[in-house]
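so im writing up the methods section and need the Cysteine dioxygenase record in one place, dumping it here so i stop losing it
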Amino acid sequence: MTTTPVAAAGPTTERLRDLVARTREIVDRGLPPEPTARLVGERLAPHLGAPDLLTPAQCEGDPDHYRQHVLHAEPDGGFSVVAIVWLPGQRTPIHDHVAWCAAGVHQGEEHERRYQLVPDGTSARLLATGDVVNGPGEVAALAPPGDIHSVRNGGTGTALSLHVYGADITRLGTSVRRIYRLPADR
Ligand SMILES: [Fe+2]
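--- predicted struct ---
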């Protein structure tokens, strides 16, 4: 996701440093995007929900839109780690990504709708292919192409998720390849 601006990484925790080291071990294997995302997701899962994963500042939301806290950006650009804080009702537009992503829910629920781009006469439209609700500890792995989705906090409390992207999104400014403004199933 990450359709709002991103800033440089701030202070981190011991547990996050451990997650970064385990992620680096996977990314440095140089596997294709899909297995990389899946294996990084497996390393991410045990840390989700741990009270010492994030600093209090990294759990703060924004009343205007979902908020991103960049937790780590690998110096060689191989990956970056972002915490996203969603207040109830906050959502992304329909989008896809510049790189693979492993996303895990740290707190609350993320409601995801996946789409497929289908021809529609001389244009195209977005067909909803599935709805997924991920709760605490659950991980989703995505790799382009075919990673078009929208995400929202459909719960009543604050939701918090960790995202590992296969790119340095502080250099790119975003993890989003494209925002889709086509007719879509809502
Ligand atoms: Fe996304």
